[in-house]
Design goal:
Blueprint: H1 3-23, E1 36-46, E2 49-57, H2 62-79, E3 84-95, E4 98-108, E5 117-119, H3 120-130
Antiparallel strand pairs: 1-2, 2-4, 3-4, 3-5
Helix pairs in contact: 2-3
Length: 135
């Protein structure tokens, strides 16, 4: 390799390193997660089918709202003497900083079929440890 080619290669590598350094974004520092839970509305739809309406401020995203509804479902299942719940759907939306969720779960004494099942006792314990209010 000639010195000219070596010089061009080194210059190209240096330029590439400089350009890649310019495209790296530093994470934006955010304040601590301090949600305000606005309450839970529970509605028995049919036998083991239950709808949960939740509201909260300070959610980071829809996942926080879904977790709040899941905590409500877990505690509700335990109150009714059941050990499990299966998630059917959750709709979330945010308006003016207020997040709302509308979730539907089935509750059962035995582990229901499906992929989105929860052990009510384990989930309720995790919710309590995380400070998420329940029914």
């Amino acid at each position: 390799m000639t010195f000219l080619r070596l010089g061009i290669l080194l210059a190209a590598l240096a330029t590439a390193g400089t350009l890649s350094a310019c495209t790296i974004e530093e994470p934006v520092a955010e304040g601590p997660f301090m949600p305000l839970y606005g309450g839970i509305e529970t509605r028995l739809l049919d036998g083991d089918l239950v709808q949960f309406g939740v509201a909260m401020r300070g959610a980071r995203d829809a996942g926080d709202v879904e977790q709040y509804a899941q905590c409500a479902a877990a505690q509700y299942a335990l109150i009714r003497g059941y050990g499990f719940a299966r998630h059917l759907r959750t709709n979330t939306y945010e308006e003016g900083g207020l997040w709302r969720g509308d979730a539907v779960y089935t509750i059962s004494a035995t582990l229901p079929p499906g992929l989105r099942t929860i052990d009510a006792e384990v989930t309720a314990l995790a919710c309590a440890e995380s400070g998420i209010p329940m029914v």
